[in-house]
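CORE FACILITY INTAKE
Project code: CF-77B
Contact: R.S. (postdoc)
Sample description: multi-component assembly, two entities in total
Requested service: structural model of the whole complex
Turnaround: standard
Below are the sequence entries exactly as provided by the requester. Do not edit them.
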Amino acid sequence: MNNMHFKVGLFAAASLLLAGAFMVYLLHARGFFEDTFHLQLAAASADGVAPGVPVVFSGIEIGRVTSLGLNDAGGIVIHAEFLERNAKWLKENSTFTLDKPIVGGAKIRVDSPDLAAAALPDDSTMLLLTSDISKEIPVLVERVKAILANVEHMTRKDGEIDATLANLKTMTARMTGEYGVLEGLLGSPEKARQVTDSLENLRALTARLDDLAAKTDQWLYAQDGTAEKVQLMLSDAQSSLKKMDALMANAVEISADVKEGTQDIASLRAEIDDAVRKANALVNEINKKWPFAREPEVTLP
Amino acid sequence: MNFLATSIESLGAKVVGWFTVAYGMFAFLVQASLLVLHPSTWNLATFDVVIKQVYFTAVQILHVFLAYALVISWLIITIILSTARDFGLTEFASEMTIRTLVLELLPFLTALFIALRSGSAINTEVALMQVNNELDSLAHCKVPPMQFEFLPRLIGGVISVVALSLLAGLLALLIGYLAIYGTNLAGFEPYTRTIAKILDFQILAGLVVKCALFGLAVTLIPVTAGLETPKKLFMVPVSVLRGMMRVFLAIVAIEVVSLALKYI
């Protein structure tokens, strides 16, 4: 056996075998043994899309754009190809979004919210949405600029925040004085002292009011107090009214006899009415001032 | 004025020299290609010499070469991976690895390896044969040197560079997988996808053609440089020096052209 020939033969066989195996592997990887799934995407703009742009599902490439062009109506049609094994991720409710990140190439993102939905048929046409971050950046920058300008205006030297902080400093400095927070709120120890003095006076005043209330109580409701006197006065008034009642009854009898005297009686009646109204007003007046339990109404028969 | 004329003259002599060399190589290549296509070339004797050449160029150094490819691949993959992690571009690491190593660096280093080891030997051998009139004697004895000396070397060189590049590339793919995913089989699917994405058949054919051209360059140029040697013994080192310089320039030129074709 020729040793050299054997070695060369082994080398050649191993190389050919590995090359063949790698070719088969590559053919499998590129989907040579599988059918291809086609998809058309209709887009408003083909900006950033070129043949070779990947179609990704959950961040994993499942297909590629093969070509793009215009249809008869002037719309953009993007053709993409998928391997049969990857086509199962494309559902009828899938959305296709063109993503253009700031770093890295554009890609078409597939979102399939419901994987149980019906599969997309071959050669179907879907809509391609666009989400372009780079277009939003200028708007964002403008807004941030405005905010920064405001912040700058607020924090400038001798600005509002500066003054506020200075005021806060003097206030907290005062708070450490004799009258504490009160001095901080009012501005000077004199004013704070006035407030504490007023509070002292108020306390004395309430003590005196207490005293006064006790005296009033005594004056009103004690034996021979004012309340009792008013009561007596009212019962007097009532007895006078009863006498008036009797008088009225007599007057009615007289009026039955003397028809001519009717005119005089009417005027008398008006006078009595007036007196009763005045008495009633007096009772009401008293009633407003003191809470009597008795019914104050004085009624005429 | 005289100086200008002299410099133009020397430039012209150089250009003529380059053209002569290029023409010599081209004529030799055409002659060899015609011989390959000729059915009478392929007898057992020629075949035997081809096998010998493959043995000396590729099989004899296989273990050293594979160890060298392993170390280089492992180093480069580690550097690419750590850089990619630092910059947060890990998703591109496998693609970067395959592109730099399998497509560019390993074929280039293989060609340099073969040029240093076999190219220089071929150049010296042919130059000595030329100086010692052995080639004329062989032709006189009805052993055409083209068929039994030069052509087997060209074929052996091409086969060797293509086969060694293939082995080194596969090894790099394996190491790349192990470096990125470890012994876990879960990465097989994404790795396969990356490989499929990069190695389309155009790229693969380009890679094979590039390796074949490398193989041709590291054998054809030393042979023609050896044949150019004047019949003086002290001219042999000069011939080897010139030949190896040309081999190096040719390898770089092939690499640059292949990159230009791929990315421009």
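Facility notes:
- The beta strands of chain A are 36-43, 54-57, 60-70, 76-83, 95-99, 107-111, 124-131.
- Chain A has a mean pLDDT of 83.
Invoice: internal transfer
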